[in-house]
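Quick one: TECT1 protein from Ceuthmochares aereus, structure tokens please.
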Amino acid sequence: VARLCVCDLLVAECDTNCCCDPDCTAADFSLFTTCSVPIVTGDSHLCSQKAAVYSLDVDANPPERIFELTDQVNPSVFCIHSTNYKQALSFSFPEMPTSDNFDQLLKRFGSAAFSAEPDSWNTDTNPSDANETYRYEYGVPVLTADAFLRLPSPVVSSWCSDANPAGFLVNQATKCTRSISLEKCGNIEAVSMLFYVNSSILAVNITVQSVVVQSQNGTRTLLNGSDVLRLPVILDELCINIVLGVSYHITYTDAGEIIEAAASFVLGAINKEALSIQQSFEISFTQVNTQPVPLSGNPGYVVGLPVRAGFRPQGYPFPADILFAALNTNKYNQLTILQSTSSQDCLAAQGARTPVLFGYNMISGCTLRITEAVQCQPLTQTLLDLLKGQNFPEYVASFGNSQAQDVLDWVPIIHIYTSEQSDNDRIYNTLQSSCQIPVSLEIEVKWTKYGSLVNPQARIVNVTATIATTTLKQLPSGRERTIPVTSSVVFTDISSPAEPGYKAWPTINAKLPFDFFFPFV
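--- reply ---
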């Protein structure tokens, strides 16, 4: 209970009057007027449990926070003596029904009653020992044996600061400058591999996944023996094995437990003229037994990241069967449009796609040269493949972190077909069979601000793909025609204005007198 804090809402910041916030310092506590959460307990159904009691000593100068850990006894006769059912201590996602396991799940849970008892009961389990592994929440600093996992980053200037904690599920990438000299390179901890692996994330040791050596001209070589620590040493007026980059990869369970931590290194060398080096650091998180899927926000979309898209397969309505595109033109489950080429030739641009980035209005295009020998049907299919790609998605994720099994988090793409015909074209089409070819694809993404006004999250609510066609008239013999083909994306914010009382600008519904501005018009 000493680590529980329901009023800790801001990541890496002190919440006002939250006496259990670990981010608050003694100076912050001295400004508090009260403790918004004076007592923190665990399960109220337990017969006996620990309680964290918080209060303020206003008589002290300056005022201080008082913390006490007491034993609390439940006066109820009907209480839980021990929590020996470990599966109930954390939420685990239920097995999702699919076309493959549906019969098995129906046989197991389809009767009027079924048993969920574990294979064995242990009545001697101590409640305090039932949860030995630390379970993280989003944004909480990743703890190590001595403090927390550090991800150096620039603070005020470009110089590295080692006080930046790595937050759970917060993918980060930083670059900073480190002061160094040839004579002291062996004594600077931050340029040694040992500094980044000589700690354990609670019960998990940090292993070395790979080591890449970068020469002074920029050439990189992957070393075979990555399990050997290479410490900085001075050799022929060079200090080698200097850490230029570290990339952490953390594997976790759905309950928030870290089960594996690996680090990849880039090592380099400096000469006696070097006064500083630039270091790069990165950390990523992957859930166990899942394929790493790049997210575009958590939860709302981040401007500049790709719009995520996917398909609904034949197995629907089984939600676990939602399948993402993993083809050549859409490798990372993204909404894409035609990519312009330097030649502006549509036939040369076939297969070239660029991802749609959230918040970025985009336009691209090419030109198509048509002769009198071209046939309508093959040309129409070629242009459709050019505009939409080989596999245009059916759904778009409403949030940047929408999961495949959450069907309601996916917005269907609405398709609209329009025709760019003049009155003369309509008369021409009625007299003889016409050829309608697609010449443009316009994608409109409507999004809204979702959640708190303090930290609104971008949410996609509607996606429309409009394909415009034009009439292809029969060309005289020996003549050619050039047709422009375009693709565009427009993002529209349809957020409603804030309700009165929620920091909105005040509105006045009143009419001015007709002669208010007299003698001016």
